[in-house]
Amino acid sequence: MLTSDATHTAALSLAPARPENLLGRPAPQMSTAPTAFAQTLLDVQNTNPANNGQPNPAPKIVTIGNGDTLIGVVRDQAEARGLKLTGSQEMRLARQVADANRISNPDRIFVGQKIDLSSLERDLSGGPEGLTPMMGAALRTTPAMQNLAIKPLPPSVVRLSSAHPVLEKTLDRAVAKGFIPPADKAAVFDKIVQMGSNHKFSPDDFARMTLMESDGMNPRASNQRCHGIIQFCDGPARGAASAGFAANPKAILDLSVHKQLSLVDKYFDDVGLKNQGPAGLEDLYLSVLNPASRQERVADTPLNIQGSQARALHVGSDTSAPITRQSIRQGLLQNAAQRLGQMLPASMRVQAQKAQQYAENSNP
């Protein structure tokens, strides 16, 4: 399934920031000192009950530069305080910053945009009183934390984020099937979230893809030609060769899921996934199935994909019908719902299927 023929497109041109404040209105000009009443009102507005009546943190404004991401900004702020965040923590704090700045899509920021980082102060304050339950439970040990009263939990008992429910459920299923050792689950989760940030795809979409390709991250999945969690295929200029296993592709099957993810990371670099901009479910899957087909953007146009493919990927689940972007999306969503629904008690499966159908109809 995997080839390494990448189709590269120019990066999105980002518009410069408008000279406005975060609310989109010109900043007011004050030419006189406030009255006593106005000063009292200002003091009240600048305190927060959550801070026990203490003044709110002074705004910390950064200006977005070329190539910056919200996750990268969060990571830089944490590292400046001697803290090492997991991928899931970076993702959650980036969303927190986006919400605080009224950014509806965290992936859509632009050069010159002003971002207020005040919302990070409590999470990254560097002391026990500044650690939220989420941060205190999942931060890895760093030199700056060794003397803290609150110690991080071992990786094996770190509670995974609810921000990626499909990924979490897929990992639970993979552990239950013996694909992933329980002690590796948190590390696998973090690796996929980090890859999603780097290559601009949804971690939940990655889980849906593996549910189609390897029954949900089975490292020993093979059809004799293609192997591993995303099916690296034999042959020159194909997936196994890209991963460095041209001479012995089946050796991939001896690697753990976590080690195979490093090969996936390299493969996505080779096919230029991050150069496509934010990748939807179809683009992510086509990067595995046939990267050259990503250039076709019309949802219902037949794609030039050779060879036998899973029935669910074809229009109407008919193998004599073509494969399109739309049929890929529908097939992956339906396959994921079916496989993950099997984890639920029978009494809950109908409800889950109805919810999935609603989601598909709401997101064509």
Topology:
Blueprint: H1 36-45, E1 61-63, H2 70-80, H3 87-100, E2 114-116, H4 133-138, H5 165-176, H6 185-199, H7 203-213, E3 226-227, E4 232-233, H8 239-242, H9 257-270, H10 281-289, H11 325-341, H12 346-362
Helix pairs in contact: 2-3, 5-7, 6-9, 7-11, 10-11, 11-12
Give a written overview of the molecule.
The protein is mainly alpha-helical and 364 residues long. The protein has 2 domains: 57-153, LysM domain (Membrane-bound Lytic Murein Transglycosylase D, Chain A); 165-362, no CATH class. 38% of the residues lie in helices and 3% in strands. It has a two-stranded antiparallel ribbon with strand order 1-2. Strands 3-4 form a two-stranded antiparallel ribbon. A hairpin with a 4-residue loop joins strand 3 (226-227) and strand 4 (232-233). The longest helix has 17 residues, at 325-341. It starts with 35 loop residues before the first helix and ends with a helix.
Record keyword descriptors for this entry:
364 residues, mainly alpha, Membrane-bound Lytic Murein Transglycosylase D, Chain A, 2 domains, two-stranded antiparallel sheet, 12 helices, 4 strands, 3% strand
Give the beta-strand count.
4
Could you give the order of strands across the largest sheet?
1-2
Instruction: Report the sheet-strand fraction.
Output: under 5%
User: Percentage of helical residues?
Assistant: 25-40%
Q: Please state the CA-atom Rg, rounded to the nearest Å.
A: 24 Å
The dominant shape is: globular
Q: pLDDT under 50 segments (min length 5)?
A: 3-57, 127-161
End-to-end gap: 25 Å
Q: What structural category arises from helix and sheet content?
A: mainly alpha
Number of helices: 12
The mean pLDDT is 75
String of helices and strands:
HEHHEHHHHEEHHHHH
Into how many domains do the coordinates divide?
2
Major sheet summary line: 2 strands, antiparallel
